[in-house]
Design a protein that fits this description.
It contains 15 helices and 3 strands. It is mainly α and 467 residues long. The two termini are 65 Å apart.
Length: 467
């Protein structure tokens, strides 16, 4: 017949292209491996004159190989990792968790920068007093290293675990503050009784108060829920904050201001009411505007110490008290002014040579300005601003309200302390003896700051990334 085709002769009509899903080769059906073998194509007329298919390293011609479940791989066999996940849709994918390594880098950088500035600002006085120019830097370095280890451990613990110890930490802070004030274990230095000595350990309990208050307020506000939007709830928060703040303010005005500021920031973020906070802000402005007369009245009735009243007088007119409290303020201003735009160079400060008392403590920012200039000072300010931004980012993405409030409390603590320290050095506010976070010398301060940052990193570690 005309339409019949002799066997062995190629067809004049082109072979029909096979479908995407093709039967599995016999070698695979028998359980043998396709590696090293040649398979016949299942399209007809594609064997060629030699009757065998030509293997290729990638896709075979005609699409003879098929993947598991009949799916044809795009680039050879076996299928890619992504393809295997598509083929098994019922397999549960493990949720990835976020960890803010950027914040961790900022913390370590500021801590190391603080060690450099402590050595630069204290090497002269340490050599004269202890015969070792690195005395203060070494002590700070050991405590900072221990604090970083504690921070990393705390960051891997679920932050909800710390809520169990909120009340205990708050009560313990009361006990320690009373021990400082009324027992021989309280240590006085420079007329201020702030330290507590328990055996070989000497620390400032005020740093524990800040951590305990952040924990307790986060727990209380979370339990209040929507009730926080009522004025009565703000009274409860004031009742928790003001008594312990009063004990701290007795010998440490700066820490008392920070404690009240922490409660203010956490309440402001959680509460929808605005007028109580605006009223408090206006009252603070009035107090600053009439600080002299108000401080005199408070000193007469016993609510303010004589040295605190002297600091306010020095702030209002430092030139009149240049041989008393105004000496440190004026020398700090001289250091800032002599630094210029780019500074004198690291280690080249003149004011640290006995002119600025305890330059490694509260006045370290003035030495930064003198050695690194306005450029270095502004750079440090921007680093702190970036840290606050990272804290805000973690708080806004926290898994729950408790975690968000923990981060907000730490953010308020660091922001207020940075602002107060720079304001004191520039004589914008009275000298309150406050340190610059992570940079100023102070073992207790840096250890508890690192503990707080560990809790922040713990909150970040509980943030689940999108699948």
């Amino acid at each position: 017949m005309a339409n019949e085709q002799k066997p062995g002769t190629p067809s004049k009509r082109p072979a029909k292209k096979p479908d995407n899903i093709r039967p599995m080769p016999k070698a695979r059906q028998n359980g043998s491996s396709p590696k090293g073998e040649r398979f016949r194509q299942h399209g007809g007329g594609q064997e060629g004159r030699q009757g065998k298919a030509q293997p290729s390293p990638g896709m075979r011609q005609g699409g003879g190989l098929t993947g598991a479940g009949g799916r044809q791989p795009e680039r050879g066999y076996p299928p890619k990792r992504e393809e295997r996940q598509v083929q098994a849709p019922n397999r549960k994918m493990r949720a990835r968790r976020f960890y803010d390594y950027c914040l961790l880098f900022l913390i370590i950088f500021l801590t190391l920068f603080g060690l450099v500035m402590i050595y630069s600002s204290s090497s002269y006085s340490a050599q004269l007093r202890y015969g070792d120019p690195g005395y203060f830097m070494k002590r700070q370095g050991y405590l900072a290293l221990g604090g970083i280890v504690i921070m990393l451990v705390v960051s891997k613990i679920n932050y909800h675990f710390f809520a169990r110890f909120a009340i205990l930490a708050y009560v313990l802070s009361y006990v320690l503050m009373l021990m400082v004030m009324f027992t021989p274990l309280g240590i006085a230095a420079n007329g201020k009784k702030r330290w507590l000595k328990l055996g070989p350990v000497q620390f400032q309990p005020t740093e524990l108060v800040k951590v305990a208050l952040i924990l307790l307020l986060a727990v209380v506000i979370t339990q209040m829920g929507a009730q926080i939007n009522r004025v009565k709830a703000l009274y409860w928060i004031a009742a928790i904050t003001l008594p312990i703040a009063g004990l701290v303010t007795k010998n440490n005005l700066s820490s008392g201001i920070i404690i009240v500021g922490i409660a203010f920031v956490m309440s402001f973020v959680a509460c929808k009411l605005n007028w109580p906070f605006l009223l408090c802000t206006a009252a603070a402005g009035v107090v600053i505007a009439f600080a002299g007369p108000i401080a005199t009245v408070l000193e007469k009735i016993g609510l303010m110490q004589p040295y605190q009243l002297m600091r306010i007088h020095v702030w209002l007119n430092p030139e009149a008290y240049r041989q008393e409290g105004g000496y440190q303020v004026l020398q700090g201003l001289y250091a800032i002014g002599s630094g210029g735009l780019m500074g004198k160079g690291l280690g080249e400060s003149i004011q640290k040579l006995g002119f600025v008392p305890e330059a490694q403590n509260d006045m370290v920012f003035s030495i930064i300005c003198e050695e690194l200039g306005i450029f270095g000072a502004v750079g440090i300010i921007f680093i702190f601003l970036f840290m606050v931004y990272r804290l805000m980012l973690i708080a806004s993405n926290a898994p729950d309200l408790f975690g968000a409030l923990l981060v907000v409390g730490v953010m308020g603590h660091i922001a207020i302390q940075v602002i107060l320290n720079i304001a004191v050095v520039t004589n914008t506010i009275p000298n309150t003896g406050i340190t610059l976070p992570f940079i100023s010398y102070g073992g207790t301060s840096v250890v508890f700051l690192l503990v707080e940052m560990g809790m922040v990193l713990s909150v970040s570690n509980q943030i689940k990334l999108q699948k």
